[in-house]
Write a structure and sequence with these properties.
Largest sheet: 3 strands, antiparallel
Helix content: 55-70%
Shape: globular
Distance between the termini: 72 Å
Number of strands: 10
Oligomer: single chain
Length: about 850
C-alpha cells in the first residue's frame, strides 16, 4: 500500500482502457468513485477489478452515491454507465455467465429511477454535495482546486440576503419561517447527514486498510506501507480524496477547516443550544409522563426578540469587538484570549475591563462574530447577521449565543480552580451547570420570580412545605436593572469566610464591585422557607449553593435571558422566548396562550398535568372562554379525561377536589388557585353543574364529579362503586406519599458509627445506652385509613381490594400501594391479599407514573452531598 491510489483506484486504468477500446469513454472521476465503493463494500476483486453483485449495486445506487457525489445531468447517467461497463467487462473476461450478466443489468436498471430521484432530492444533501452543486452552477470547474477555493472565498463575501436566498432555494425552505426554526432544523439535519456520510466512509476505509495490513502481515499480499505511515492520517486523507472525486477537488477539507463557518455541525457552538434544548425536552418529557409540552407563554414576535437581543449587554459588546477587528483588517490572536491590541480599545470604547474582555472575545468567536484564519482572527459571518439579518436570523443568532454562554459555563469550574476555589465548591459549580436545563424548566414553568435561597434549600433536600410558592410568593422584579457587564461576568472567586461580608475585588486597580450574592435576612429566609430558627451552619449551607447559582444566573443575565435582583431571579421575556423557540427547534411543543385556546380537549389535557396550578387555571379559563359553548366544552373535557389519571387530577384540582391530607402542607396560609364556586357568570356555572351531573354516573370519574358538585352546594346521586373506589384509592395513596415526605430527610443522612457513638457519650466520656428511636414502619398511616375505609365498604377489605384491582388501569401507583399495604398491614389476611394482588398487578400494563414522582419539587439526582435538616 504505497499511496491512496492503491486504496481507491482498484483497476481504474484497466476498466477505462477496456471501454475506450470498444468505443466508449468512461469519465474517470465517476469510474474511480464506483470502483472504490465496490471494494470498500467488500466486493471480491478478480483480474484486477471488483465484481458487482445485485446487493452491492443496490447499496451503491440507493445509499452511497446519493450521499457522496454531486452530479450534473450528464454525470448523473455516468455512474450507472460505469456499473454497466463493469458488468460487461466481467462477462467478457469469463467471470460471469450470461444469466448472471442479465440479472445484474436488470438490478441496475431497476435502481436507476430511485437513484435519480435521490440524487435530486434536497433531503439527501450533505454540505459537500450542496456546495459542489452551487459552485458548478456558477460555472466553476470542480477539478480545479484553486478555482474551488476562490469560489468559496467569494461566496463567503456575498451579501447575506443573497446567500440566504441561495440556501433556501437549494434546501427548499418555506417562505414563511419567522423565527428561523425550520431553517435551523434543516441546517442541523444537513450537518448530521454530512457527519453520518463521513463516518460511514471512514469506517469502510478503516476496515479496508486493516484488511490490507493484516493480509500483509500474514504474507498473503505484498503491500508494505510507506515509511511514516499513519493509519488515522490515511483514513482522513482517503475520506477527503473520495469525497472530492464525487464533489469538487479540495472541497471536503476546506469545509471542515478554513470554511467550517459555512457548514454548521453538531460540534460547532452554533448547535450547542440544540443539545441544551434536547436535554430540556427530555427533562420535560420525563415530568409530563411522555409528552413534550412546555407551559404556554405569551407570544413574542421575532422582531421583538431581535430588539431585545440588540438591547442586551453581552452580544452587542461581542459585535462591537468584531467591528473593531474588521476595521483593523484582522488581528493576531488566539481563540481563548483577546488580542493584546484589543484591550485598549475594549477598555476605552466598550467599557470592558481586561478581566472580562477574554470572555467577550471567546463569546464572539463562539457565535461566529469572529473566526480564526491562518493564525489571525478575522470577522465571521454572524457580523453580517448582526448588521443586516432578518428578525428570524437574529433569533437564531440569539440561540447560538445562548448555547455559547452555556458552553462557557462548563469551563467555570476549571477557571475556579485557577482562582484557588476549593474542590468541593468546584464540584457544586459543575453540578449546577449540569442541572442548567432543569433550572431553565423550573423558571419557565412559573413566570413568578424564584428565590435562589429556596432553590438552594431544594438542592440540599430540605423538606419544605408542599405549596411553598403559594405560601410565600415573591414580588415581581422591576424593569431590567443596571448591573454592569463587568459585574455579570465577574470571575469565579472563593467565597468569603464571612458570608455577610462578601465583596468581590479584582483588577489591577483594586476596583470593588457590589457583593456577588447576599442571603436574605433571617426574617425573610424564614418566610421564604417556612422554617424555624436558622443558625450560622444553615445559612452557610444555603450560601454554598446560592452563591454559585448567582454566578451562573448573572452570566445568563449578561445575554439578557435571565435577571437577578438580590435573591430573586427570573427568566426575562427574551429568555422565555428563546427557550420556547429553542424547544420547538428541538422538536418539542411550546404553544402560546393564543395557540392553546384553539386546541381540542385531548390536546389540552396531554400537557396540563406537568404545569403549576396557576398556569393550569389560567389556561383552562382561556380555553373555556375561547370555546363559546361552555356546556359542550365541559362535556368534551370531562369525556377526554377517561384513561388519563393525571389529567383527571389536573382538572378536578381546579374544581376544589383534593386527594391528599399532607401533614407537611400547611393549608392555613395557602390560597390554592382554583375556579371560583360559583363561577362569576351564572350561565357558565349552570353549564359546569350540568356537565358534572352528567358525569356522576361515570364508572371512573363519577365520585370526583359528585365531590365537585357537593363543594358547589349540590346534593347529587351516589356515584358507582367503581368511581368511589377511584377517589378513595387516590386519597389513601396520597397518605403514603405524605408519610414519605415527612421522613424523607433521613434517607439522605445516615450517621456513621462514630457520630452515633459521640452523640451517646455522657459528660464523663462513658458510653450510655442508645435509646430506642424506632419509628412506625412506612405505611402505618395508610393501614389505619384503609381499615377505616374497609369497615364502611360493602364486603369489607377483601371486596375493597378487588374493586381497586378492577379499576387498576386508572390508578397510577397501584402496584406500589399494594406492596406498601402488604408489607405494613398488621392483619396477616389483609397483608397476604394485598401482596397477591401486587404480584398480579406486576405483569399488567399500567397507565401513568407513580404518585410519588409528582412532588412539587422534582429534582434530578446530582453528585452533591445531601444533608438532613435537623
Amino acid at each position: 500500500m504505497r499511496d491512496l491510489d492503491d486504496l481507491l483506484d482498484p483497476g481504474l486504468d484497466h476498466l477505462v482502457a477496456w471501454a475506450r477500446e470498444r468505443g466508449t469513454t468512461l469519465p474517470v472521476r465517476p469510474a474511480g468513485v464506483v470502483l472504490a465503493l465496490l471494494v470498500l463494500r467488500g466486493a471480491r476483486v478478480r483480474g484486477g477489478l471488483p465484481e458487482p453483485t445485485v446487493a452491492l449495486i443496490r447499496q451503491i445506487m440507493d445509499e452511497d452515491l446519493p450521499q457522496l457525489v454531486t452530479a450534473d445531468p450528464e454525470e448523473l447517467r455516468a455512474y450507472p454507465d460505469v456499473l454497466a461497463a463493469l458488468i460487461d467487462q466481467r462477462r467478457e473476461a469469463g467471470l460471469l455467465n450470461a444469466k448472471r450478466q442479465s440479472k445484474l443489468h436488470t438490478a441496475l436498471q431497476e435502481s436507476i429511477t430511485d437513484y435519480e430521484r435521490a440524487m435530486t432530492d434536497p433531503v439527501r444533501l450533505t454540505w459537500p454535495r450542496l456546495y459542489a452543486g452551487l459552485l458548478r452552477a456558477d460555472g466553476v470547474d470542480p477539478t480545479d482546486r484553486q478555482a474551488v477555493w476562490q469560489w468559496l472565498c467569494e461566496y463567503r463575501e456575498r451579501p447575506l440576503s443573497q446567500r440566504r436566498a441561495t440556501l433556501e432555494s437549494a434546501l427548499g425552505t418555506p417562505a414563511v419561517d419567522d423565527t428561523g426554526i425550520i431553517s435551523r432544523q434543516r441546517t442541523v439535519i444537513l450537518g448530521l447527514r454530512t457527519e453520518n456520510a463521513e463516518l460511514v466512509l471512514q469506517g469502510l476505509l478503516l476496515t479496508r486498510i486493516s484488511d490490507i495490513l493484516d493480509a500483509t502481515a500474514n504474507g498473503s499480499v505484498q503491500a508494505e506501507p510507506v515509511p511514516g505511515f499513519d493509519r488515522t492520517t490515511m483514513v482522513d486523507d482517503a475520506t477527503d480524496a473520495l469525497l472530492d472525486r464525487g464533489t469538487a477537488v479540495g472541497l471536503s477539507a476546506a469545509l471542515r477547516g478554513e470554511f467550517r463557518d459555512l457548514t454548521p455541525r453538531r460540534d460547532n457552538t452554533a448547535t450547542v443550544t440544540d443539545l441544551l434544548m434536547h436535554e430540556l425536552r427530555r427533562i420535560q418529557k420525563d415530568m409530563s409522563g411522555g409528552d413534550t409540552h412546555l407551559p404556554p407563554t405569551d407570544d413574542a414576535p421575532a422582531t421583538e426578540i431581535a430588539e431585545l437581543l440588540r438591547s442586551s449587554a453581552l452580544l452587542p459588546a461581542a459585535a462591537g469587538l468584531a467591528e473593531w477587528v474588521e476595521q483593523q483588517g484582522g488581528v493576531t490572536g488566539g481563540p481563548d484570549a483577546a488580542a493584546p491590541a484589543a484591550r485598549e480599545f475594549a477598555a476605552g470604547q466598550l467599557g470592558l475591563p481586561p478581566q472580562v474582555l477574554d470572555e467577550v472575545w471567546r463569546h464572539a468567536l463562539a457565535v461566529d462574530l469572529l473566526r480564526p484564519a491562518d493564525g489571525r482572527i478575522v470577522t465571521g459571518g454572524a457580523l453580517q447577521v448582526w448588521r443586516d439579518g432578518t428578525a428570524g436570523e437574529l433569533v437564531q443568532l440569539g440561540l447560538d449565543a445562548f448555547g455559547a454562554v452555556a458552553t462557557e459555563l462548563t469551563h467555570l469550574a476549571e477557571r475556579a480552580e485557577q482562582a484557588d476555589v476549593p474542590s468541593e465548591e468546584r464540584g457544586t459549580i459543575e453540578a449546577l451547570v449540569e442541572d442548567l436545563p432543569f433550572t431553565l424548566f423550573q423558571l419557565f414553568e412559573d413566570p413568578a420570580p424564584a428565590s435562589l435561597a429556596r432553590m438552594a434549600a431544594v438542592a440540599q433536600m430540605w423538606v419544605l412545605p408542599y405549596d411553598l410558592e403559594e405560601i410565600a410568593q415573591l414580588p415581581p422584579l422591576s424593569a431590567r436593572n443596571t448591573v454592569t457587564l463587568a459585574a455579570q461576568l465577574r470571575p469565579p472567586l472563593p467565597m468569603s469566610s464571612d458570608p455577610d461580608q462578601l465583596t468581590l475585588v479584582f483588577g489591577d486597580d483594586d476596583e470593588s464591585l457590589p457583593a456577588a450574592y447576599h442571603l436574605p435576612a433571617d426574617d425573610e429566609l424564614r418566610r421564604l422557607l417556612r422554617q424555624g430558627e436558622l443558625d450560622a451552619s444553615d445559612r452557610t449551607e444555603l450560601l454554598g449553593i446560592a452563591y454559585w447559582q448567582a454566578l451562573l444566573v448573572d452570566r445568563l443575565a449578561a445575554l439578557g435571558v435571565m435577571q437577578r435582583a438580590d435573591d430573586r431571579v427570573e427568566l426575562t421575556r427574551l429568555g422565555r422566548a428563546l427557550v420556547r423557540v429553542g424547544f420547538q427547534a428541538a422538536g418539542g411543543t411550546a404553544l402560546t396562550i393564543g395557540e392553546i385556546a384553539a386546541v381540542d380537549a385531548d390536546e389540552l389535557l396531554r400537557s396540563m398535568p406537568s404545569w403549576t396550578e396557576r398556569i393550569r387555571l389560567h389556561v383552562l379559563q382561556t380555553w373555556l372562554d375561547a370555546r363559546g359553548d361552555i356546556a359542550k366544552a365541559w362535556q368534551e373535557l370531562l369525556a377526554a379525561i377517561a384513561g388519563k389519571p393525571h389529567s383527571r387530577r389536573a382538572i378536578f384540582d381546579l374544581l376544589g377536589v383534593r386527594y391528599e391530607t399532607d401533614p407537611t402542607r400547611d393549608l392555613r396560609h395557602v390560597v390554592i388557585p382554583q375556579l371560583p364556586a360559583p363561577l362569576e357568570d351564572p350561565a357558565a356555572e349552570h353549564a359546569l353543574r350540568t356537565a358534572l351531573h352528567e358525569a356522576v354516573d361515570d364508572p371512573i370519574n363519577g365520585a370526583l364529579a359528585t365531590e365537585a358538585l357537593r363543594l358547589r352546594g349540590e346534593q347529587p346521586a351516589d356515584p358507582p362503586l367503581s368511581a368511589q373506589a377511584v377517589l378513595l384509592f387516590e386519597r389513601l395513596n396520597m397518605l403514603t406519599f405524605a408519610e414519605y415526605r415527612a421522613r424523607q430527610p433521613a434517607e439522605y443522612d445516615t450517621p456513621d458509627e462514630d457520630e452515633v457513638a459521640d452523640e451517646n457519650k455522657t459528660a464523663d466520656g462513658t458510653q450510655e445506652a442508645e435509646q430506642d428511636t424506632m419509628t412506625p414502619p412506612l405505611g402505618s398511616a395508610l393501614c389505619v385509613a384503609f381499615d377505616q375505609a374497609a369497615a364502611n365498604w360493602p364486603g369489607g377489605a377483601g371486596d375493597l381490594l378487588r374493586q381497586f384491582t378492577a379499576v387498576a388501569p386508572e390508578l397510577p401507583g397501584y402496584e406500589n400501594f399494594l406492596e406498601t399495604l402488604g408489607q405494613a398491614h398488621p392483619q396477616p389476611a389483609v397483608a397476604k391479599t394485598a401482596r397477591t394482588a401486587a404480584r398480579q398487578a406486576h405483569n399488567r400494563t399500567r397507565s401513568g407514573d407513580d404518585a410519588s414522582t409528582h412532588t412539587h419539587h422534582r429534582k434530578r439526582s446530582s453528585s452533591r452531598k445531601k444533608r438532613r435538616r435537623r
